[in-house]
Design a protein that fits this description.
alpha/beta, Glutaredoxin, six-stranded mixed sheet, three-stranded antiparallel sheet, globular
């Protein structure tokens, strides 16, 4: 499996460019050396530590309505269930780039696709925990394993060693959900890990393919909360 990260920083935020560049160099230094390959039959994800890709928030995507015999139909709704080690489940629906999770009332939701064998994913875990603790009323983070079927022991070790104190789903449905979301974002099926998607009020806000400095992620969370207050 090839390892790669793509880079596309906020070009419109010139005042932060130097800071982000420095943080990016630090990230590479800390998380570098990912030259071990994870052999999997699935071609869902790859892992790499060289570049970061982040789309502009609220990026416009082409419509994907399906035409049957000349009639345009609505995109089908995909149902899924997240479930953690304590068997705490959240049923959800996905339609194109919009999501709904039962029992989750926070205005901002983050889906963080990761694998226990991915060093950059482990590196981001404690910072995600900090964000979850900092914004308990506004934010719900769902770590979602992909291309990975860790045993309970392996996952508990990952959580403990990396202080991953947020919701983590390990169901067999995760790979299918990842594929559906990747299709909606026009991502290659072989997308990079970690993959982080921000939603506000169920609507797509922004996403990052690859490791991302915590300052950038928190900036987008603040922007999402700010936008919601203005609606």
């Amino acid at each position: 499996m090839l390892f790669r990260y793509n880079l596309d920083y906020y070009t419109q935020r010139k005042s932060l460019k130097k800071v982000y560049s420095l943080l990016f160099i630090i990230i590479l230094f800390v998380l570098g050396g990912c030259d071990d390959k994870k052999n999997k039959n699935s071609t869902i994800v790859t892992e790499n530590t060289t570049q970061i890709v982040q789309t502009d928030k609220n990026e416009s995507f082409p419509e994907k309505n399906i035409s049957l015999n000349g009639n345009v139909t609505q995109i089908a709704t995909y149902a899924f269930t997240l479930s953690d080690l304590q068997q705490k489940s959240h049923k959800g629906t996905l339609k194109d780039r919009a999501i709904f999770l039962e029992g989750i009332n926070t205005p901002v939701v983050i889906f963080h696709f990761f694998a226990t064998w991915c060093p950059p994913c482990a590196g981001e875990a404690p910072y995600l925990s900090d964000l979850q603790q900092k914004y308990p009323q506004e934010l719900f983070i769902a770590g979602i394993t992909v291309n990975d079927t860790p045993t309970r022991e392996v996952l508990e070790k990952f959580i403990q060693e990396n202080h991953a104190d947020y919701y983590i789903s390990t169901t067999l449905e995760n790979d299918a959900l990842a594929t559906k979301i990747a299709e909606g974002l026009d991502l290659d099926s072989n997308f990079s890990l970690p993959l982080t998607i921000i939603y506000h009020n169920g609507k797509y806000f922004s996403h990052y393919e690859g490791a991302v400095p915590i300052e950038i992620l928190e900036h987008d969370i603040r922007e999402a909360i700010k936008d919601l207050k203005q609606e």
